[in-house]
Amino acid sequence: MSSIAFVGLGNMGGGMAAVLAGAGREVFAFDLDATALDRACDAGCLRSRSAAEAAGRADVVITMLPAGQHVRAVYEEAVLPNAKAGALLIDCSTIDVESARAVAEKARQAGFRAADAPVSGGVAAAKAGSLAFMVGCPEPEFPEIEAVLQPMAKAVFRAGEAGAGQAAKICNNLLLGVSMIGVCEALALAERLGLEPERFFEIASNASGQCWSLTSYCPWPGPVAAAPSNRGYEGGFATAMMLKDLKLAQTAAAAAGASTPLAAQAEALYALFDRLGYGEKDFSALIQLLRGRLEELG
Ligand code: NAD
User: Fold this and answer.
1) Measured from the CB, is residue 181 less than 6 Å from ligand 1?
2) What domains are there in the chain, each with its CATH number?
3) Which residues pair with 134 in a beta bridge?
């Protein structure tokens, strides 16, 4: 079984590395944050003193870092100079398509196999090993990548060549960010028109307004028990994270010459909500801004 270097043990990476160790993999872990590294070691990972040391020990290198600049730096300074010959490099961070393609290209020039494999599903799915992975890699390499990711996954999709995993991820989150605002607006209007929001939920769930943001993640507390709206909008997908992904989508759209006017509006709304101090709240909490009831967020 291949040994794994895991770099970036934060909210997501910490859970993922623990799942791999729990599945019996040898996991050489590193994070700049000593607490995150201690937590991973308590969960069965092996301590490395640097990303370079971890990368030099393993057959597969997985990175789960905040943004494109972190991935570029870790690849250039630690992974590419130190990874074993022929190692498989998988970046699971959500980053811009351009950085994903650039690091994959550099990795290939240095003789490594490389894939981008961002994930859908939050911290709970990372801990439970039930993430959805969207992979950008050459087709012949996919089976091996799928086998490495499998313990952490409920599904592993190949989206296309290098960068295609990031493209799929940011397009999906563009759709999610826009659809959630539509659901929030509809529920806020239903309330103003004197409709019971729960009744409107029931009707729209069975009519053409049905969508995941409504039926699986309803921003109005009550109808969907597991939704963050029932927990004070805590512990879901942070507004700041959605904002980051919409910025990635807008940058990609500008570079590709694509028109994304609703995503631009959505980005502006989440940015406003973030600036008002609600960046840590789940993105569905935006309904309280639209209702003019921010005081309900405490
Ligand atoms: P996080 O900030 O909790 O974790 C990132 C970790 O990387 C931190 O522990 C940090 O210390 C570490 N790090 C940064 N630079 C490093 C370096 N040079 N060497 C070693 N470690 C370094 O972030 P997260 O929530 O775990 O998210 C990670 C990625 O996953 C992001 O790209 C995010 O967009 C994506 N993502 C997050 C979620 C979510 O719900 N949190 C869901 C899907 C995807």
Assistant:
1) no
2) 4-162 (3.40.50.720), 167-297 (1.10.1040.10)
3) 157
